[in-house]
Amino acid sequence: MSSLTTMTSLALESSDLPWLDANAIIDQFGQFAPYAVAFIIFIETAFILTSFLPGDSLLFVLGITLAATTDFPIWLAIPLVIASAFAGSQVGFLTGHAVGPVLFERRHTWIFNPTFVAKAHGYFDKYGPRAIILARFVPIVRALVPMLAGISKMDRRTFLVYNLVGAIIWVTGLVGIGYLLGEVPLVADHIDTAILIVIIVTSLPFPLEMLREWLIRRRQR
Q1: How many other C-beta atoms are found inside a 10 Å radius of the C-beta of residue 128?
Q2: Could you tell me which of 49, 51, 54 has the C-alpha nearest to residue 36?
Q3: How confident is the model at residue 206 (pLDDT cuts 50, 70, 90)?
Q4: What is the pLDDT of residues 146-191, one digit of tens each?
Q5: Is residue 136 part of a domain?
Q6: Nearest to residue 192, comparing CAs of 21, 18, 19, 65?
Q7: How far apart, in whole angstroms, are the C-alpha atoms of residue 78 and residue 178?
Q8: How far is Cα 123 from Cα 120, in angstroms, rounded to an integer?
Q9: Alpha-carbon span 216 to 221, nearest angstrom
Q10: Model confidence at 69, in pLDDT bands (50, 70, 90)?
Q11: Is the separation of the CB atoms in 171 and 143 below 8 Å?
Q12: Global pTM?
């Protein structure tokens, strides 16, 4: 039986699986957890409607799990998930690039509005391509920013490079932290608290960047 078939059957057997619980997801898929994580990370970063799925916590728990088992080597798991994170954001970018402007120009609602496109342009003029990397660490925003980049017609090569860098930093960082802390008894005994701390800490780069920009503008007045 192939890995994909086994993974699918595991998912179907647990229709009541709490998809917001990283621990439950990892436990359910067992040795196939890296594949399940890769799939979830892909859809979480590719589509706005699925951006509520766990990302940071899933990567952290995957690292902890890999430290405690030899079923799947970390040197294979990390590239697999990086590829999924990269591909997901590329889908979001291409979707925004292809259909975003048409939707926002033809439909004038509170969601589809031409002024939203103008704001997207201003957003990237203000923060630059580094916003693509920073957005990786903020839930929901990491699915929204690639689409905004596509809508604002960011250069494809520029987005591709920053998307790849962001995926590498995000996945390697969180899985690596989980892997290093996986055998620490204090972390194992308080995993929920550890997940919360990791999510808070990894979400800091974006607000800190906004604070830095605010301080710069304040000094220039």
Answers
A1: 11
A2: 54
A3: low
A4: 988 888 888 999 999 999 999 999 999 999 999 988 777 777 666 7
A5: yes
A6: 21
A7: 12
A8: 5
A9: 9
A10: confident
A11: no
A12: 0.80
2 found inside a domain: no
Q: Specify whether the CB–CB gap between 101 and 117 falls below 8 A.
A: yes
CB distance 79 to 171 below 8 Å: no
Q: What is the distance between the alpha carbons of residues 41 and 55, in angstroms, rounded to a whole number? A: 6
Two tokens at 215? 């301080």
In a domain, 13, yes or no: no
- Count of domains forming the chain: 1
User: How many other C-beta atoms can be found within 10 angstroms of the C-beta atom of residue 125?
Assistant: 9
Which residue, 194, 170, 191, is CA-closest to 81? 170
Whether 11 maps to a domain, the answer reads: no
Q: How many residues does the chain have?
A: 221
Terminal Cα distance for the chain, rounded: 66
* Residue 68 reports pLDDT greater than 60: yes
Q: Helical H runs in the chain?
A: 3-13, 22-29, 33-46, 56-68, 74-106, 114-127, 130-135, 141-151, 156-181, 185-189, 191-202, 205-220
- The range of the structural domain enclosing residue 188 comes to 19-220
Give the model confidence (pLDDT) of 112-134 as tens digits: 556 656 666 666 777 778 889 98
pLDDT at residue number 102: 67
